[in-house]
Amino acid sequence: MTALAELTRIYTDRAAAARGGPVYGYVGADVPVEQLTAAGVLPVRLWGDPAGDTAPGDRYLGKGLDPVARSVLTRLLAGAYGTLDRVVVSRDCEASLRLFYALRELRRVEPELDLPEPYLVDVLHLPHRTTTRYVRARLEQFRDRLHDWTGTTADLPGAIARHDEQRRLLAEAAELRRAVPARLTGTEFLAVAGAGTVLPVTEHLDLLRRLLAEAADLPEHTGRRIFLTGSGHDTPEVYRALEGAGHLVVGEDHDWGDLLHLRQVGTGTLTALAERYQHNGPTAQRATTRARAAHTAAAARACRAEALVGYARRGDEAPPWDFPAQRAALPELPAALLERQEYGRIDLEGIR
Amino acid sequence: MRTRSLASAAAAGRYQREWFAGLRERVAAGEPLALVNADVPQEIFRAMDIPYVVSQWWASLVAAKQRSAHYLELVRERGYPDYTEQYNSLTLGAAFDPEPENGPWGGLPAPSLVVADATGDVTRKIFDLWGERPGTTFYALESAAENEVPVNWWDLMPHRWEEAVGTARLDLLTAELENLIRFLETTTGRVFSETRFREVMALVNEQEEWNRRARDLIARTRPVPLDVSEGIPAVMVPQWHRGTEWGRDAARSFYEEVRDRVAAGEAACPGERARLMWIGRGLWYDMDFYQRFQDEYGAVFVWSMYLAVAADGYLRYGGDPLRALAARFAAFGDQLYTPPWSAEWYVKEARLHGVDGVVHLVSDDPRGSYFTTRALETAGIPVIEIEADNVDARGYDPDSVATSIGTWLTETVLPRTR
Prior knowledge:
The complex is a heterodimer. Chain A is an alpha/beta fold. Chain A folds into two domains: 3-150, Rossmann fold (3-Layer(aba) Sandwich), CATH 3.40.50.11890; 156-351, Rossmann fold, CATH 3.40.50. Chain A has helices at 3-12, 14-17, 33-38, 55-61, 67-78, 94-109, 129-150, 156-178, 186-195, 201-213, 237-244, 270-278, 289-302, 319-329, and strands at 23-27, 42-45, 86-90, 117-121, 224-230, 247-252, 307-313, 335-341. Chain B is of the alpha/beta class. Chain B has a domain at 7-146. Chain B has 19 helices and eight strands. Chain B has helices at residues 7-28, 43-48, 55-64, 68-77, 86-95, 123-131, 153-156, 161-165, 167-188, 194-220, 228-240, 245-264, 294-297, 305-313, 321-329, 332-337, 341-352, 369-378, 398-417, and strands at 34-36, 52-54, 113-117, 137-141, 274-279, 299-303, 357-362, 383-387. Chain B has a four-stranded parallel sheet, with helices on both faces. The model of chain B has no long low-confidence stretch (mean pLDDT 94). Chains A and B meet through helix 4, helix 6, helix 7 and helix 14 of A and helix 6, helix 9 and helix 18 of B. Chain B: This is 2-hydroxyacyl-CoA dehydratase. Chain B: Belongs to the FldB/FldC dehydratase alpha/beta subunit family. Chain B: GO terms for molecular function: hydro-lyase activity. Chain B: It holds the Pfam family HGD-D.
């Protein structure tokens, strides 16, 4: 089996891959997975299911919230991720924070639901020293809490080095999709990156190295090269629909894709880790419209995109605020914004 | 005996108009103007005598004038969504108005400073857009969260706020406020006086203590001497002026008027049969709503968060005054919207006021609403949820809402009060 096939198989059945203990589920790319790896636990990023029932999640979180969070809560209630020892939640978006609050309160008032213990890592993002100090203090608390839970003495520099290598190799894989013609589709890249959110980092590194070694044998892909901005995509349905309609997603600015590998830690210290996560992004939910526009324009050009597609999921309120500036920053590209899209679906009529 | 209109509310309304006219004159004369979010520590601006307008207050005014759709259309025309966080985007619409002088009360002057905390996913973006306007600078504050919190914040906040809020959040906001003061000194040329700041902080505590007395008196008086639509302006206009002698005295006048009504046996709803609680932001475009159920059902709204959070949410004593100010705002929203704080507080307040039923406004932004409703129902208090946005009247059907509440009163609430 080729490395791409193996990565795709793992991504397609992420629940099966997320085995072996202890397993900590995590929500959002602002969770410093390096600390989890260093503590000897397997970090498994939680994802939703657009085709699944969200009624339990809707009940606790309300229907106005991003359906990804509602689906994740539904799946946690159903035990769909297997045995999770704990759930670590970040502030990557408002929906994640509400999910944390719901988990915390449900543990208090409805303990019979037997939900895993949640923990919030409150990484904030304003580009100021005051925020750096705060994030570092929060990571110190998280480090101490992990020590209490696992009893292990963490090898943080080693874990940072491995995750930095993972990001470096993912960036190389991203180049395969940016190439003309592309050697990876957007759907395939989503799987290459997504497999790494459930595998031990060393196993993902092995597969990434094999993928890059096999790159010359990968088929060429053509299609209308689009840069996808807006909501994150924790599942592949929207990418599949786009690419099934003749588009090729050559880049994106969400953290299930290219934003996952954008920034390295560099130094094996807690302060460097705090700075990496403080400046993580720029995601739609946490960055300024100006930062988003600058990033999107540069990334779309680097991808040699032929069109800009904005995708805003119903309940994910931030992306539509970015789009006017993003469109203005890329005057040479046709651009369209698809607002209030249903989870896992896309109205392709809007970009014909 | 049915009550007369509240003199303190009328006086607050007159004061607010005069104040706003004066503010427009000051800005026209070249003074700075700050537009701030409600959760921004306004006491710093007060101490430095920098005029400010609270974004949500302006939005409530626009909604009350039935102008929401106009301003949201201006937001939409520029390519931005008109369906998210209307409480802040509505005020942004004022910035896009080609005829700003046609706005309420002569229109909102262009601010030179905007200050907001980075709550949610959209607030910072909206204020960013303000900051991109010529002559306007945006200063952002973080919005931080805590893992574990003691439930009984209302007991702890006045004196043990460090324990309630947590050191990490207080360290952060205190440092941000130190920087904000330097920023304001540099950009406005105004001086921050520690002595003046302490006076402002003391005045705020005095004002909220008067509100606390009024809340306690209303809670224990049957029939209730005033309904929430009377009380909200008498509380909130002074709240936007907290830290002034006028604000403190207005809160005292409000208390004294309530006390006199109680002494005279006056009632908002003389045939009071059911005491209702309104959970959620004020329904600014339909304030008559709050009196709609009195004549037919004997049901009167005795509680809204505006007086209650003034009574419980602002008092901060002791310690370094800037850290105490940080403690007022580092977790302000949690008091109202984050369980367990919010849910347990609403139950505490419902019991204090002898509430028979709760009308719970649930918008598209349902912050902790399940847990609020659950806690109240677990405490044996009936709850009806209504779905609406508090400033965006599009899609609001007053008759349908009134019918639902009438049915609920008849079938669920009133039979329990006999």
